[in-house]
Amino acid sequence: MKKLLTLTALTATLAATASAAPVISAQSIIVNPVQNNVNVRVWTNKDTSGTRTPSYFPGERIQISTTVDQDAYVYLFNVDPNGQVDMILPNRYAGGANYVKANTTKVFPAPAPVSPSTSPRPTA
Known about the structure:
This protein is 15% helix and 22% strand. It is an alpha+beta fold.
């Protein structure tokens, strides 16, 4: 009887272990990216050298340009004089536009497309 009880306990333990197998999902996988050195250059439309800190007035249009030496996702932040940090990119308007191909320049926000002229053609 003692052997039967031990065998039953062992079987129950094995069954419990088999049913407690971990469930793997996409959320449980952690990817550790390879460390890369990415060279980044950032500048604004008021300072193409990227070495100064230009001032902008409220409502004034600002364009931020960047270039990277490897394909990368660019995240832009604004830090105000009080230390408040606001993320500029990505945002709901950019729609994934923070991806920058290597050795290309990307402007945020993107320049507006040139609209065709609606004025009549001059006559000669």
